[in-house]
Amino acid sequence: MNHNETFETVESLEAELVSLTESLWETPELGLHETESAELLSSVLRDAGFDVTEGLGGMPTAFSATYGEGEPHVGILGEYDALPGLSQTVSSSREPVEAGAPGHGCGHNLFGVAGVGAALAAKRAIDDGRAEGTVTFFGCPAEEILVGKVFMARDGAFDDLDAALTWHPSHLSAPFMAQTLAMNSVEYTFYGESAHAADSPQSGRSALDAVELLNTGSEFMREHVSDDARIHYTIPDGGGAPNVVPAEATAWFYVRAPTRDEVDRITDWLDDVAEGAALMTQTTVSRRFHTGCYDYVANHALSDQLLENMRLAGPIPYTDEDREFAAELQETLSAETIEARTAQLSEERREAARSSVLYPDAQPSYDVGTVLNGSTDVGDVSWITPTAQFWAASWPVGTPSHTWQAVAANGSFGSKAAVYAAKVLAATTLDLLSDEALVAAAREEFEASVPGEYESALPEGTEPPFHLTL
Question: What is the CATH number of domain 182-293?
């Protein structure tokens, strides 16, 4: 399909899209609290004639914006939450805008805006008679704590889709084909008895002792789970002054594994360890389940179409000035970091990446058949409808996400990657709206590759964890 007109539509929106990326970057908001960000993006689509529904999944900052009618129905996923403690100016040295404040270290200021741009371009094609069907942009909050799409999926937000598309900023451009890890997020809070730790310790029962026993127990579990499984924890509340036996203490766990079944098995075992820790310390324990997501299942038919359109739309038009700033950022990274970030590439591609501080040319997937040791709530969507996503080169080669270097790039030349991503998403959306065979192929592959029916991992009655500030 010729997408010149689609690309021209996105280019006509470039000034508006870049302005939106800057606005989100300048007002970073944490997950489930992205009030200004969600309103900014939803208002753009509402003003353009989309039917906007807010409060999806019980979250005020989750919304959908729909245009068109009939089938096929294509969904575009967008995110806009920031990360704590990553405030950073657009500079090549560590320099927070405000110490301790959030920052867009994962590029979600680019992420959501590209989806909005794609939805606007798809609308214009529908209005012009170049496509028929329905397009919905989904504003998905709190991806960093793996919450937004999980609660939206539980409430059926994605059930009517024929396909879903999304992307993510990165240091290279390629379809995202790796499997991700399923995950549970659970807090265990122990309740004991306070006492003077020196004068009457026999009167106390330490909740912190119980937390420490739980954490120790989890360490002994590691030998008996799969190599790809991950168990990690923090202690958000360990008590107060050392001379007071802590009457309350909390451990927060992430459990990850390649399948939901293994995640649930490990979590059940961890529940038993928590009960054992309570018995050992004569305390009681409560369990608070925050969220649980599925592993990601990439759709090859859709991913191949994304790659075709990435090549049509690219390369990302970075300037000499962009490359100069990117080189300054890259110099702050260690050789070990850059090597680790490019290790998955073939030797030929690795040499090409090493010689280019920005590597904006689209390439075939470099992660087919691999397991990415992280999680995404896009996984839940991929179990409901055929789903594909891609990386777009928004940062210097070798830059990890969740770093101040990524924040600086996201506030400067990264906006060009957002415009590029809008082109790719728009073109692939229109391919789906106009090509019944592509929709059918994606569905056939989905039914063959997704190993079961989707059932939300959320226990009945689970509410979004608004108290979390990550």
Answer: 3.30.70.360
